[in-house]
């Protein structure tokens, strides 16, 4: 027997899958559906989603279309960038970091409209179901969660299309054939996976890339840019002050032009399987290099190394959906504390898929030419001090060596 649901908030894109989910919720649960469509900078026109929801009988006051781009970058992407977060050493977590914000807004809307359930369109094989639902339960422990892909028998594209046609849900022509791959986009990245990408031996076809030019076709002349940082956050590009979303948008444009930010990755999903994905993160790739550049001269060596030790754990928490966990918040507090003096300017060279730091300066610099110089340092550093330092560090090694020599 289906559990009684009065009203559900659905994460709704207006595409085939979520439109079928909308109708299925109405029929299977007999409940009122509230749609929520988030603008996270995916670059798509969102108004068709509103019109489609209205055509399917959703009340205008129950259709939520929210521009979350600034909140997304300010409160989710930038905190992650302050940590230099990379999952498995490479992935900039573009999909992972969007899910807690969507979950947060869904719960806010559920409270606003008096809904007793939330629903999403993630499948039972992927990470997103975990990320959404951990967010829901962290923010509303008693909420009812509906995941249609784990409940219904519409387990093929043909069944989905047949269901849609029988309910007069329009099916775009490009959805009638088997989709060559699936795509997820937001202001930070575009990810593609499935179908033609499932063989990890085969090179990603060039037509899969939508966000960057082929590095081979990028301009033959390098472009030099500067990024200004304040307390670990990018605040200006080439001297022009910008909001967080504007910073990422501008860097995306620069990265696209120069073919920066492509990644072909076989990753370990939290659910246990390996999957192959293609990621394009042009602006994020530039930003993380720049942030490391300003940290190089402003962050103490011990603090920097500790951050690098903490980062894989922090990245894994985000990837696995634990954004709202106390351990992520504890790590964030330590990371943010480290950024108090991470201010200054980084100069970068963008060229044919590469981004390189070529200069950095800061009023808070810890770099001292006087100490490090190969020339006369005028007494700033006594080289004789190194002998005692080395001998103290060598003490245990010498004792081990003496012991081992006796046993020969």
Automatic annotation (TrEMBL):
Keyword annotations of the record: Amino-acid biosynthesis, Arginine biosynthesis, ATP-binding, Cytoplasm, Ligase, Nucleotide-binding
Known catalytic reactions: L-citrulline + L-aspartate + ATP = 2-(N(omega)-L-arginino)succinate + AMP + diphosphate + H(+)
Residue ranges annotated for the Arginosuccinate synthase C-terminal domain, each copy included: 181-398
GO molecular function: argininosuccinate synthase activity; ATP binding
EC identifiers of the protein: 6.3.4.5
Pathway(s) served: Amino-acid biosynthesis; L-arginine biosynthesis; L-arginine from L-ornithine and carbamoyl phosphate: step 2/3
Name used for this protein in its record: Argininosuccinate synthase
Organism: Zymomonas mobilis
């Amino acid at each position: 027997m289906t559990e009684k649901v009065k009203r559900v908030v659905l994460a709704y894109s207006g595409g085939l899958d979520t439109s079928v989910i909308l109708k299925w919720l109405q029929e299977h649960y007999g409940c009122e559906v509230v749609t929520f469509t988030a603008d996270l900078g995916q670059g798509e026109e969102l108004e068709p989603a509103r019109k489609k929801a209205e055509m399917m009988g959703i009340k205008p006051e129950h259709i939520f279309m929210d521009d979350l781009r600034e909140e997304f970058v300010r409160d989710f992407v930038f905190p992650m960038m302050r940590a230099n977060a990379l999952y498995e050493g490479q992935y900039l977590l573009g999909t992972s970091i969007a899910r807690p914000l969507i979950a947060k807004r869904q719960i806010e809307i559920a409270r606003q409209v008096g809904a007793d359930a939330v629903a999403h369109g993630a499948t039972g094989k992927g990470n997103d179901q975990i990320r959404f639902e951990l967010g829901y339960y962290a923010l509303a422990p008693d909420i009812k969660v509906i995941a249609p892909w784990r409940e219904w028998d519409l387990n093929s594209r043909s069944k989905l299309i047949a269901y849609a046609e029988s309910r007069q849900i329009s099916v775009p022509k490009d959805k009638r054939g088997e989709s060559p791959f699936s795509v997820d986009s937001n202001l930070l990245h575009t990810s593609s996976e499935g179908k033609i990408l499932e063989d990890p031996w085969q090179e990603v076809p060039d037509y899969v890339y939508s966000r960057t030019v082929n590095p081979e076709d990028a301009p033959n002349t390098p472009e030099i840019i500067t990024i200004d940082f304040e307390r670990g956050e990018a605040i200006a590009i080439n001297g022009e002050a910008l909001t967080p979303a504007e910073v990422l948008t501008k860097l995306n444009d620069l990265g696209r032009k120069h073919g920066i930010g492509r990644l072909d990755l076989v990753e370990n999903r939290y659910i246990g399987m390996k999957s192959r994905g293609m990621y394009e993160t042009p602006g994020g790739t530039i930003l993380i290099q720049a942030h490391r550049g300003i940290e190089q001269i402003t962050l103490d060596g011990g603090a920097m190394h500790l951050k690098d030790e903490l980062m894989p754990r922090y990245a894994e928490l985000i990837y696995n959906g634990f954004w709202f966990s106390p351990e992520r918040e504890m790590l964030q507090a330590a990371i943010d504390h480290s950024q108090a003096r991470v201010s200054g300017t980084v100069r970068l060279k963008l060229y044919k898929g590469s981004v390189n730091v070529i200069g950095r300066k800061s009023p808070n610099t810890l770099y001292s030419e006087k100490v490090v110089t190969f020339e006369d340092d005028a007494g700033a550093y006594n080289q004789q001090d190194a002998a005692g330092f080395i001998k103290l560090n060598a003490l245990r090694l010498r004792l081990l060596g003496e012991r081992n020599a006796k046993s020969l």
